Amino acid sequence: MQNVSLRPVTVEDATSVQLYAWDARLAATCNVLHPYPPNGGQVFVERCIHARESRQRFPLISF
């Protein structure tokens, strides 16, 4: 069995989010736009950070 760890989303995650969300296979399995916008990873991360700082949501990312 493999462990999964969660941590808060950070600015450094934008590139990885962009890379994975751009994949059409991912879009076929969840609620991700396809084609994914060229700046989608950055926008997603900025929204996550804002939500956390304003205590609206506490988005996490697995690694």
What does this structure look like?
- This protein has a two-stranded antiparallel ribbon.
- The model has no long low-confidence stretch (mean pLDDT 94).
- By secondary structure, it is mainly α.
- It is globular and about 30 Å long.
- The two termini are 15 Å apart.
- Helix 1 crosses helix 3.
- Helix content is 41%, strand content 10%.
- It has helices spanning 14-21, 24-27, 40-53; strands at 6-8, 60-62.
Number of alpha- plus pi-helical segments:
3
Percent of residues in helices: 40-55%
In percent terms, what proportion of residues is strand? 5-15%
Round the Cα radius of gyration to an integer and report it. Answer: 12 Å
Topology:
Blueprint: E1 6-8, H1 14-21, H2 24-27, H3 40-53, E2 60-62
Antiparallel strand pairs: 1-2
